Amino acid sequence: FLPHSALGFSRGHWEGDHLVVETRLLKAGVKGYMGEVYSENSRMLERYWLNDDGTLSSVTELHDSENFARPPLQRTRWARRNPDTVPIVAACDVDSFFRQIYLDGLMQEYIDRSDRRF
Fold first, then answer.
1. How many whole angstroms from its chain centre is CA 85?
2. pTM of the entire structure?
3. 61: which residues sit within 8 A by CB, 6+ positions away?
4. What average pLDDT values come out for the chain (118 residues) when binned by 10 residues?
5. Closest CA to 57 of 36, 74, 33
6. Contacts for 103 with CB less than 8 Å, ≥ 6 apart
7. Could you tell me if 27 and 5 are in contact, meaning their C-beta atoms sit under 8 angstroms apart?
8. DSSP code of 118?
9. How would you classify the pairing of strands 18-24 and 43-50?
10. Residues 23/34, Cβ–Cβ less than 8 Å
11. Distances from the Cα of 20 to the Cαs of 7, 11, 14, in angstroms?
């Protein structure tokens, strides 16, 4: 048995040429640039694939019936791989704004004030 955590527990498998990653055991919190609240009963489903032009694409679904009637989707497409690119190591917490208002009990107020969230 694994405890719930901020990163959860992920398992991946291949479905044809798509890598599918499912994450469960997430500690309740807030995710993403739109501040999606999620419960401990949620699960993330990510699908990754290479396009014909060599770019990488993904679709991420947040399944959480306690907070959403249907899963919010996030679609991403990255630039083509460049072997001359040097990776930059950086620490980034994109969810810090939403995490703090969630911990302060202000998430519903934020949602109520935001008519353009979804």
1. 25
2. 0.70
3. 44, 45, 46, 71, 72, 73
4. 86 97 91 77 95 92 91 88 75 66 81 62
5. 74
6. none
7. yes
8. -
9. antiparallel
10. no
11. 17, 8, 6
Residue 25 structure tokens: 């055991």
For tokens 């719930």, the residue is: 4
Structure tokens at 66: 């306690």
Residue carrying the six token digits 């019936």: 65
Q: How far is CA 108 from CA 33, 50, 60, in A?
A: 16, 38, 23
Alpha helices in 7-106, H assignment, sequence order: 96-103
Q: Which two tokens stand for residue 3?
A: 């405890």
The residue length of the chain stands at: 118
**Residue keyed to tokens 């419960």:** 39
Tokens of residue 108, six digits: 């519903």
